[in-house]
Amino acid sequence: MFSPRRLRLFLVSAVVLVCFILYFTGDVRRAQALRATSTSQMGTSNPNSKGSSPGNHGYGKDSDGGVFDKLRPGSLRPGEKTKPDIADNSKTQTALPGKEEKVKGKDTETEETKSEDETVKEEMNAILKRSPIIIFSKSYCPYSKKAKYFMLEKYDISPVPFVVELDEHPLGKKLQDLLATNTGRRTVPNVLVNGKTIGGGDDIEALYLSGELGTKLQTLGGKRVTAAPHSEGPEP
């Protein structure tokens, strides 16, 4: 026979055990009911889908999704607006309209200028090779006529000076510009001996009157040039 004390302990333990069983049984039932309700809601929100895909978790467009919707990457809460993507323009380069054409135009213009300058220089070099003494003149210029008179009529010079009438030459203006750059003298006449200027009409006249013209020509011309006074000719 059990003592009254043990009997009471046994009864209390039995009651506690029954309470625990009833409590956990109720939790299981509530969990099953909640799961059934969630499944029913998912089926109602997406009636055309046969099953929920792993990425969507079975939630429809209007479902709040509970905690899982909040944790789902990229999901938006009700009332939130999508943030527009900010384009990274730091590495984007847009070609300006007409820029390439302008560059090509400048290159073409530069090439044409270089080609013209080279042509003028080549012509100048060709002229300087014609004789050690070159007279750059203009046919209508009285000072040019004076220089040609003293150089060609008053002196017997060998080799004979080569005369370039700039007003009749197709590159006359460009040649005159090049003379101004090379000799520092732009006006005509411009008398060169071995590429060095000895002046214009008044300078040639002064050298002739002082008797130094022949000496000047031979000094600058070297052994290639001989200059001797010519017989008297008519005044210019």
From TrEMBL:
Residues 36-118 are annotated as: Disordered. Residues 43-56 have a biased composition (Low complexity). Pfam families: Glutaredoxin. One of its GO terms (biological process) is cellular response to oxidative stress. GO terms for cellular component: cis-Golgi network; fungal-type vacuole; Golgi lumen. InterPro entries: Glutaredoxin, Glutaredoxin_euk/vir, Glutaredoxin_subgr, Thioredoxin-like_sf. One of its GO terms (molecular function) is glutathione-disulfide reductase (NADPH) activity. NCBIfam families: GRX_euk. This is Glutaredoxin-C4. It comes from Arthroderma gypseum (strain ATCC MYA-4604 / CBS 118893) (Microsporum gypseum).
